[in-house]
Structures are given as C-alpha cells and as structure tokens.
Design a protein that fits this description.
The complex is a heterodimer of chains A (185) and B (195). Chain A is built from nine helices and no strands. With 185 residues, chain A is mainly alpha-helical. The chains are: A mainly alpha (185), B mainly alpha (195).
C-alpha cells in the first residue's frame, strides 16, 4: 500500500485535492488510527494558530495613522491657518483678558452698564482698591482708564482684539466643522 | 449599514479620511498580527503598521481595483516589516528562495502521536502561541497569511513576491516546525501511543 506523506495530509486538510484523491485519502484515513490522529493534530494546530490573533490595535494607533495622513491630502485652509497661528491664539487670549479689564474698569463713571449692578460694584471696589494699592506702592497717581481707551492706541487695541476674536470664532465654527466632519467616523 | 468595500476604497482614494478610517479598522487587526509575527516586538509592529497604512493611503489613488485590497495592503505591510528587519541588522532572507529540494514529501512515522485531550488543552494553545512567536519571520508570516488571513498560495505569492514553490515549502516547513515542537514538548504522550 502506498505510504501517506504529511504533504498529502495537509492538502487533504486544506481541501486542495481533487474529488477522486479526496475519496482515496478518506479511505486511507478511515483505515488508519495513526492517520486519523495526524489529521486531528493538523486541525488542532490550525485552530490554535487561528485563535492566536494579536491583541487589538490600540485606538491611539488609529488616531496616529489618521493624523499622519491628513497633512498629506486633506488639510483645510482654516486648519493650516490655525496650526500655524497657535502663538497668535495665545496672544489673542491674553489681549482679550487685558481688554476686558480695561473696558470694564471704572472709567469716568458716565457709562451705563447692563450687567448685574452689585457685581459691577464689587468689581469696581476691587479694581479701585487695586489701583489705590498700586498707586501707593509706586507713589504715583494713575490716570483714569477712559484716557487709555479713548486714546488712538486704545482704539487700535480694541479693533485688534475684535479681529482676533472674530478669527477664533470663524475657525471654531467653520474650520473645525469641516475638518472634524471628514475625520471622525 | 455596511458600505460596499469598493465604494469605501474609492472614497478613501478620493481623500476621504473617514472612509480610510473604516479600512484601517477593518484590516489593522490582521495587519497587526502579521507585523507582530514578523517583528516579534509590539512597538516595532505598531511603528511598521503606522508607516504601512500611511504609505498605503498615499498610494491608494494608484491602486488597481482588479487586485484584492487586502492582498495589496498586506504586501505593503510585509515590505515595511521586511525593511525593518534588515534595518535592525537581523539576518533575513525574506525574498530568497530557500527551497532545498522537495521537503514536502516526508512520510508519516508510525511511532508518535498526541492524545486528543492534549490537543484540546489550554496548555497546547499557549505552547503553539509561544512557538509561533519564536518562529523565524519567513515561516511565521506565511503561516499567518495562509491560516489566519486565509489567503491562497497565489495571494501569498503576490504579497511576498516569492515563487509558488517557495511559498509551499515555507508553509509546509512552518507547519512541520510547529508539529515537531509540539511532539518534543509533550514527549510523555508521544511514544507507544500507536502501533
């Protein structure tokens, strides 16, 4: 009787034999406990190999891949502008805070505020206290804030702040909507 | 609703990152397994995978639809891993024909076999996993493509660039390495079982 090789058994297990050879191999296997066990061993090894999938791909890898491909073909105008102007953003935030302090200071006392009066009053007290303290420290008198705001420099500062804020709002609303819309699933 | 793969590929080739994200999700587990089995190191495998997926994205507009996307992608992963192996200075002959005659016609001896209960045990699975992790990249990669990714000889040829004789020889050798390792590991079960 012709001896069976491992290659033949593997071809049989892989379903790569012709119907005639498959039938012949089935007869041989049926008549040999040794071959039956080898077939089971081949199948057990295959089962183990198939079950041994690597650990799941971490989400950060997916994120890195998508982040890496975006500069190549997909970066929007607004994203490029935002990415290159992060320093300007930081400056805008600082200037905005300074602007808020200047604009909401006590000034000449002739402007009508629409915010909660007690909060305004508390803030004014705090502000006046700070001004007094600084004046005391520096032994110099401070000019009213309205002088600064009404000066050409102050107006320029306020216009600049408005442009920065507008830019940030536009980037948030227009730029990120477009950018994230094409990125997230 | 699951989008048709050809539509997803077309949209990704047009630059839609969301569609490419779908392809990354679909193929990265298998690609990761292939990379792990070739490089034997998780960090290197992740680096290779990232590099491969970025390369694939850039090359996607030139992807010819008559080929299977998975085969095309695994070829990129395989090549990136092979490059990393040679960059590490490890001896590698990933693309060389290692056929030494016909190794596939080994006859089955009559004196060793494993009992069924051993093959079903968790210890058996763990041992097989460790053996694959230790196996040379040229064998482990082909075994992975054939058994885990269920690729045909022809697809493996396309991925590796190897002739079919080498693919068959390596696959046979990989299986025999596993089998022999199992028989050696559980010697108490391998003698006197069959007559």
């Amino acid at each position: 009787m012709k001896k069976t090789t491992y290659q033949e058994l593997m071809e049989y297990c892989d379903g790569r034999m012709t119907p005639e050879r498959t039938r012949e191999m089935e007869q041989r296997i049926a008549g040999s406990p040794r071959l039956q066990q080898e077939v089971r061993l081949i199948r057990s090894l295959e089962r183990s190999v198939r079950a041994e999938m690597s650990a799941p791909v971490p989400t950060r890898l997916r994120r890195n891949i998508l982040a890496a491909i975006l500069p190549a073909r997909q970066e929007s105008f607004w994203f490029r502008v935002a990415r290159n102007s992060s320093g300007l953003f930081a400056m805008a935030i600082v200037l905005t805070m300074v602007g808020i302090v200047i604009a909401s200071g006590p000034g000449t006392g002739t402007r009508e505020h629409t915010l909660i009066p007690s909060a305004i009053q508390s803030y004014r007290n705090l502000y006046d206290g700070a001004v007094d303290r600084i004046a005391e420290w520096s032994s110099r008198s401070l000019q009213p804030v309205s002088h600064t705001v009404n000066s050409p420099f102050g107006k320029f500062l306020l216009v600049g702040l408005s442009v920065f804020i507008l830019f940030i709002v536009l980037d948030e609303v227009v730029g990120k909507r477009y950018f994230h819309g094409t990125l997230k699933r | 609703m699951i989008a048709e793969e050809s539509d997803v590929i077309r949209r990704a080739a047009d630059g839609d990152a969301r569609s490419y994200g779908i392809l990354v999700d679909r193929y990265s587990p298998y690609a990761m397994t292939l990379a792990m089995r070739m490089l034997k190191d998780r960090r290197d495998a992740e680096e290779a995978l990232q590099d491969a997926f970025v390369r694939a994205y850039r090359a996607l507009p030139g992807f010819e639809r008559r080929a299977k996307f998975s085969t095309w992608l695994y070829r990129i992963v395989y090549n990136v891993c092979a490059t990393m192996l040679s960059r590490r200075g490890e001896p590698t002959d990933m693309t060389q024909d290692d056929a030494h005659g016909d190794e596939t016609s080994v006859e089955i001896p009559a004196d060793d076999a494993l009992p069924d209960e051993m093959m079903e045990s968790g210890e058996f699975d763990l041992f097989v996993r460790d053996e694959i992790a230790r196996m040379e990249a040229r064998y482990a990669s082909i075994l992975t493509m054939f058994l885990l990714q269920e690729q045909s000889y022809e697809e493996i040829m396309e991925v590796t660039g190897l002739p079919i004789g080498t693919v068959k020889n390596r696959l046979f050798r990989a299986r025999m390495l596993l089998r022999d390792a199992v028989m050696k590991r559980f010697p108490e079960h391998t003698y006197g079982m069959m007559t």
